[in-house]
Amino acid sequence: MPTRTPAAPPQARTPASGLSARAVADLLCHARSAHALLGPGLIVTLPRRVRDARTHEDEDTLAARLLVVWSDTVRAHVEAGTYDVSLSGGVDSAALCAMAARHAPGKVRAWTMDVHFADATERSNAQRMAQVTGAELVDVRIPDAVLPDLFERAVIANQAVILNARAVASFAFYLEAQRQGAGPIILSGAGADEVLRGTPGAMTSAKARVDEDRALAVEVLRLGAPAVVEALREASRGGARDQAQAMDAGRHNPREGRAPAMGASNHGAPAAVDNLRAPFPGGVRDHEEAPETGRGAVDNPGTPSSRAPGGDQKSETRTEPPTGETRPAPSEVSDCDQPASPRVGLQPVDNLRGVSERVNSDHAPPSPPVDNLGALLAAMPPPWDLTPGDGPASEELRYAEWVLRELILPPELRGARAQGLTVRTPYLDAGFAEAALALPESLLLRDGFGKWLFRHAVRSLVPDEVRLARKTPRYGHTALSSPVRTRWLELYRAWLSPARLEPLQVIDPQAVSKLLERYTRLSPEDALAGGMDRLLMRLVSLAMLQAHTEAPPSCPES
């Protein structure tokens, strides 16, 4: 099916409805911690915990206790009748599949994604897990040609901008899985990295990517637009204020929110949140409650029950050592995954994985002048430090909530919901999140690798070749590197026309046109390709969201 060219709106019209100029400016500049363009967005609240610096218990005891919490968490889902599991082949989804199969032998179906940028080792590991657990393996094939054609549907379903083709592939995955009989509920391993420190270098990489995004935004924004100036001024003031408040809170109560030992009663813990309002025991709630309602812990989206939106967007970076060098592995074996890698030499990668060589300065003065927007953007704090006053004091939690809300959960939860599926994320259930966030960092990071204690805990469930496999880099899947590059570029040009960009009010269409032409001349391996593609996909997404919010409502009788 050829890429559809959108019908252009009248050239000079100022939209009476649609996205606000301020929301667009905030999003492109990372000027606020949440970029909900249509409605309140996802609500993600992790348990307020500060990790203990050390533990007096041995590693095996803590690992056994963590395994019990994991078993109880997954069993609750299985006993509610959920037997479908999304299986990528990484340790998180592998442990989820294995535990589900332990509690429901012979009933589990494992769903995998066959798309050209899927890692071959992880796909092989998914097949291995299906064999050892007795799960029925269902391989969902996603042709490259469908991704540009599904981009618009994915944007509208996610109610958010899309940064890479992985989010579209997730939408296509749930679409096809539903056609093949998945659901109505499917379990996902999303969130494990965020509560178990799965990617030690993720925050550093994210800061670098934000720097890169902000520098490119200066090229396409109308810098004199009042919405742009005000967004930056307010964010700079608020960021400095929030940081000062967080530091002050830490000085006065450094042990605030300390987690109880695993297995202890969590009387004050936030309730587990269900993911899309399907019935689930335990008084669960979800992520799209109105802001004034009580917030649950974490787990998945939703508005009140009548409203209806890799996944693969996880933040991971890694580099291979130079030829002839090896990297030390954790003490149990000589090979496992997720090393913390230096910024030098990293290629731009998917989601939170693009890197920049620009200097990052995180702390903005209280009220900087607005005469140089590029310098102002470079001085702004990262978006997770622009949280409201009631946000968590821990930077780890601020970052985790931001990445879950902005990048990981929308394509997982909303993309599935558009197909009539409910996705639940056991790693974000309150009980497991409480236990994971209480673990000392020293037991999660070992020799530069993340999630160590959890890997150790699931050694009876997951074969070593899967449990300790190195995590492969998930390089940015850009239009330049796609097998259907021409189709992607046609989509970009159709939606980045002046007629489509003018209603956004703060975008300079001529600057976007020049950026797009520069982009088309790059090689797929160019270090600039990832950042430019993220910006172009954001702009295309914004144009699509604007077009849909401007569209007149359908006739009730139709």
UniProtKB/TrEMBL annotation:
Any GO molecular function: asparagine synthase (glutamine-hydrolyzing) activity
Pathway where it operates: Amino-acid biosynthesis; L-asparagine biosynthesis; L-asparagine from L-aspartate (L-Gln route): step 1/1
InterPro entries noted in UniProt: Asn_synth_AEB, Asn_synthase, ASN_synthetase/amidase, Rossmann-like_a/b/a_fold
Residue ranges of the region described as Disordered: 234-350
EC number(s) reported in the record: 6.3.5.4
Catalytic reaction(s) noted: L-aspartate + L-glutamine + ATP + H2O = L-asparagine + L-glutamate + AMP + diphosphate + H(+)
Biological process per Gene Ontology, one example term: asparagine biosynthetic process
Sequence ranges assigned to domain Asparagine synthetase in this UniProt record: 81-521
Low complexity bias: start-end ranges: 320-330
Ranges of biased composition (kind: Basic and acidic residues): 249-258
Enzyme class, UniProt record, top EC level: ligase
Stated family: Belongs to the asparagine synthetase family.
Protein name, as recorded: asparagine synthase (glutamine-hydrolyzing)
Protein species of origin: Corallococcus sicarius
